[in-house]
Design goal:
97 residues; mainly alpha; 2 strands; globular
Length: 97
C-alpha cells in the first residue's frame, strides 16, 4: 500500500473515489463527466475571452478533464494521486487525446 491514501482509494475503486453519484456502470460515469463539461461550458464559456487553457484540480481519472479537452486548447489536469494521473494518461491515450 502507498503512503498516499488517494492512491490506495484509486486502486480500490477509482470510479467511485472520483464520483459516487453515477450509478454502477463505467459508461454512466463517463457520461456524467460529459454532462458536467457541457454545464461548465454553458456557464463559463460566455465569460471567457478565449478557450486556451482549462484547469481541473482533483481531476482523478479524467471524468471532466477528458471532455473538456474537446472544448479547450489545453487542459491541465492536477491530482495528488499518481495512480489517478497514470490512469488518466492511459484513458487519454486510448481516446486519442
Amino acid at each position: 500500500m502507498s503512503a498516499n491514501p488517494w492512491d490506495n482509494l484509486a486502486r480500490e475503486d477509482a470510479l467511485r473515489t472520483v464520483s459516487t453519484g453515477f450509478g454502477s456502470s463505467e459508461e454512466a460515469f463517463w457520461q456524467s463527466g460529459e454532462r458536467t463539461a457541457e454545464f461548465i461550458e454553458g456557464h463559463v464559456a460566455p465569460l471567457l475571452h478565449a478557450r486556451a487553457v482549462a484547469v481541473d484540480f482533483g481531476c482523478g481519472i479524467g471524468r471532466i478533464a477528458l471532455p473538456m479537452a474537446h472544448r479547450f486548447g489545453v487542459v491541465r489536469a492536477v491530482d495528488v494521486s499518481g495512480v489517478m494521473r497514470d490512469r488518466l494518461g492511459r484513458e487519454a491515450e486510448r481516446r486519442g487525446i
